[in-house]
Structures are given as structure tokens and as C-alpha cells.
Amino acid sequence: MSEGNFSEWLRARCEPTWTEVVTHPFAEAITKGTVPDDDMRRYLSQDYQFVDTFTALLGAAVACADSFEARVPYGRFLGQVATTEEKTYFHRALDALGAGTGATVLEPVTEDFRTLMDEARTSQDYVLIVAVLCVAEWTYLGWASRATQPYPDNFVHREWIELHEGPEFRQWVDFLRGELDRLGPGLDEDHRQEVLSVFHRAVELEKRFFDMARG
Ligand SMILES: Cc1ncc(CN)c(N)n1
């Protein structure tokens, strides 16, 4: 691993799955606005449950980061996810699709993803927490940035792209990658392999999540 390039080192070790995620037919259909309502409803209902645990993981990042400088971006992003865009999006989108945000039977992949996030959260190991967050956000930037203008008219598709694209979201992904790049060189070999294992599990789960959404 070359100095300062831990995030790219991790990503490259997850090929070809990484590319299968960012070019996944379901993600591509979102960018084109062609996902059938039944599939979008299944996907967003499961993702609402994902985001619940993801929000708890962001809280763990605030708690476990190794400096005030590092805590601040998590706090800022946590505020956005919990109170504004993402939360109102789910309510509006699921309403438009004829579903609510109430109890949902979890798909196996949603259970498995929540288990991974809970493991990272309870480990209180900052670099493992960043690894999971980074996969979730970087893969989403990956597919969303493949969307071409004009974005779909349907707000359910368009806003989901916009939430995962644009300068602010890019900056957030750069921050997460930067944290991995900063921490990687200081890890011993066992710890580095542990981060790779968590990163790899998260990439596999992203692929399974899109597979599930496709039905
Ligand atoms: C499954 C999944 N992975 C990532 C993201 C992006 N926050 C998401 N909403 N859902």
C-alpha cells in the first residue's frame, strides 16, 4: 500500500464487485427514471430501515473520532440526514409510492447490512466505522455521478440522485476517504486486514442490496 492511498487500496481490492455496484442495472434505472414503482417501493422501504442504523453509525463516528476536527463533519452530515433532506425525502417518496415509513419486514440483506453496521458501531473502532460509512457513500456517489442531465422528472428518482451527487456530497465522500488515507498508514497488518474485511463485506452488501431491489 502506498502512503496516503489507503482508500484506493481498499477499493481496488473489492473489484470486480465495486464496479458491479456502481454500474448496477437497478442504479442505472434510477438514473434513467425507469424503475417500476413496485421495485422502488421495495427498495426505499428497505433503505429506510438501512438509514436508521446508518444514522446510529454516524453517531458512533461523532463519538469515536480521534479529534474535534474529525467529529465536526459527521455532526454536520448527521444533522442533514436526521432532520432535513433524506428524512423528508423518504416520507414524501414512500407516500407517493403508496407505502408508509412504518414497520417493514426486513429482507435478509437489510438484516445483514444492519448487523455489519451494528458490529462496527459497537466495536467503537473509529477506522472500522469510517470503512463502512465510506463504502456506503462512495459507492452511491459512484452510481449517482453516472447520471446525465436532464435528470428524471419523477421526483422519487431525481431527488435520490441529487442526494448522492453534487459538490457537497463529493466533499463528504472526500472527507471519508481522507480519513481512511490518514489512518491507514498507522495501522499494523492485522488491523489493516480487518479494515479490508469490513470494507469488502460492505461492498458485497451494496451489491446484494441492489439485487434485492430488482426483485
Ligand atoms: C444500502 C445503501 N447504501 C448507501 C446509501 C447511501 N447513504 C444508502 N442510502 N443505502
Automatic annotation (TrEMBL):
The keyword Hydrolase applies. GO terms for biological process: thiamine biosynthetic process; thiamine diphosphate biosynthetic process. Its EC number is 3.5.99.2. Substrate binds at residues 47, 86, 137. It catalyses: thiamine + H2O = 5-(2-hydroxyethyl)-4-methylthiazole + 4-amino-5-hydroxymethyl-2-methylpyrimidine + H(+); 4-amino-5-aminomethyl-2-methylpyrimidine + H2O = 4-amino-5-hydroxymethyl-2-methylpyrimidine + NH4(+). Pathway: Cofactor biosynthesis; thiamine diphosphate biosynthesis. Pfam families: TENA_THI-4. The active site is at 206 (proton donor). Residues 12-214 form the Thiaminase-2/PQQC domain. It is an enzyme of class 3 (hydrolase). One of its GO terms (cellular component) is cytosol. PANTHER family: BIFUNCTIONAL TH2 PROTEIN, SI:CH1073-67J19.1-RELATED. This is Aminopyrimidine aminohydrolase. It comes from Nonomuraea dietziae.
